[in-house]
Amino acid sequence: MSTPFEFQVLEANAKYDSTYRHSGLECLFLRKAVIVTCMDCRLDPESAYGFELGEVTIIRNAGASGRDAASLRLTQVLLIKHTRCGLLGVPEEVVHGIMKKNLGLTESKDVDDFGVLTFLELEKSTREEVEYLRNHPLAWKQWRVTGWIHDMDTELLRKIVE
């Protein structure tokens, strides 16, 4: 039996299906661009940055890490971190402690070895992720990689790495 949340998802999906207009859309993204941003549920990249389905690939992960984009065939990467990120300023050990508590564990090598991509300074971390992508051995050398910060209070973007 479906939970109320699952029922809501199925109901929304049926409504979406009745208005879906992209049947047959190819997987090759039209602009050969990727937006890497955080998985924070407060972000709506398609709406905020003006893209339609199929135009760009959007990679969302904890902390907007560029590591997921390193080997894609594209021409541009916009790496977009955001203010008030849950990983900003939180030591990795604290996250591991929360994970252990949620799992009911006092000790766990698996949790201790789990890589959490926390960061202490937003602009510095954005610059480091851009450099990571620009210098990655699997990256296409013709990429244009830029770094941005999305302000969660104003919803405005600011480019910090050209």
From TrEMBL:
<dbReference type="InterPro" id="IPR036874">
    <property type="entry name" value="Carbonic_anhydrase_sf"/>
</dbReference>
<feature type="binding site">
    <location>
        <position position="40"/>
    </location>
    <ligand>
        <name>Zn(2+)</name>
    </ligand>
</feature>
<protein>
    <submittedName>
        <fullName>Beta carbonic anhydrase clade D</fullName>
    </submittedName>
</protein>
<feature type="binding site">
    <location>
        <position position="85"/>
    </location>
    <ligand>
        <name>Zn(2+)</name>
    </ligand>
</feature>
<comment type="similarity">
    <text>Belongs to the beta-class carbonic anhydrase family.</text>
</comment>
<keyword id="KW-0862">Zinc</keyword>
<dbReference type="GO" id="GO:0004089">
    <property type="term" value="F:carbonate dehydratase activity"/>
</dbReference>
<feature type="binding site">
    <location>
        <position position="82"/>
    </location>
    <ligand>
        <name>Zn(2+)</name>
    </ligand>
</feature>
<dbReference type="InterPro" id="IPR001765">
    <property type="entry name" value="Carbonic_anhydrase"/>
</dbReference>
<dbReference type="GO" id="GO:0008270">
    <property type="term" value="F:zinc ion binding"/>
</dbReference>
<feature type="binding site">
    <location>
        <position position="38"/>
    </location>
    <ligand>
        <name>Zn(2+)</name>
    </ligand>
</feature>
<keyword id="KW-0479">Metal-binding</keyword>
